[in-house]
Amino acid sequence: MSLQNGLIILGILIALAAVVGYAGLPYFYGTIYRFDQHTDGPEKYGHDDVKEVTFTSEDGSTISAWIKPPEGDAPVILYFMGNFTSIGPSMFRLKPFLDEGLGLAALVYRGSSGKGGTPSEETFAADARALYDQLDSLMGQEIPPKQRLAHGYSLGTGIATRLASEREVAVLTLEAAYARFCNYFTNRYYGLPFCAIMTKERYDSIDRIADINTPLLMLHGERDAAVLIDSGKRLFDAASQPKEFKAYPDGDHVNLNKLGFVEDSLTFYQIHIPGNWVNE
Q: Are 214 and 172 in contact (CB under 8 A)?
């Protein structure tokens, strides 16, 4: 076989692989979100002061959130969870903040925690905006923007970043964040170029982060095998000041709450969200 014929065959094989890859994308998109479907309420997690509420999203869908009003002028955490879980287990990582008097508005994703609906990047973004816009009525009190912080964990970092680019928040906290969600699949599937072929569900946080003029706190475990710390550092490097990156040498994807991230977060909030709550 001549070199020319070999190159032609190689080109055909590459083209066929591309066609097969694009044809398989609809199936792939349907496997991205793998939420737990447990329907336990807040009371199971020892929080009688947290309640589940519903609100209407931008497309008219009824969406749920778990909320707790703040004590005094303490900030409210708009929380966006990760994949492979339900809203209930998030309470374990959030409890120390609630014990300090912070408020909570945790979005319950469509297609998770026993809820209906189809999960997607666009519907999550719409639901996050609706939660933000209706926060005062859901809390039963005014929560000014300077008292609102967005906290995203893993998958939720893309939702939190987008919300902070579209609404005013006092602080953006990103825990185990990626530069682009498609990077996660490239890392998971042996370097395949997912960012080159995915046309949606990309969560391109790195394209939004530079335009967010709010204090940024990023927290990442150096042993995180799910979202590599290098991806988080790329996102951090693209962000504007003020910003802080906390790396935890013994941290993986799920254990930062045991390694001081609560204390580090509260210290950051006390600097950037001043008020009477700091001294209480």
A: yes
CA atoms of 152 and 160, how far apart (whole Å) = 5
Q: What is the pLDDT of residues 193-238, one digit of tens each?
A: 888 888 899 999 999 999 999 999 999 999 999 999 999 999 999 9
Measure the CA–CA gap between 211 and 238, rounded to whole angstroms: 10
Query: What's the CA dihedral at 131, 135, 138, 141 to 10 degrees?
Result: 180
| pLDDT on residue 14 | 41
**Close Cβ partners of 241 (under 8 Å, ≥ 6 residues apart):** none
The mean pLDDT of 87-104, rounded to a whole number, is 91
Handedness of CA 219, 130, 98, 267 (dihedral sign): positive
Of 222, 190, 193, 218, nearest in space to 206 by CA: 218
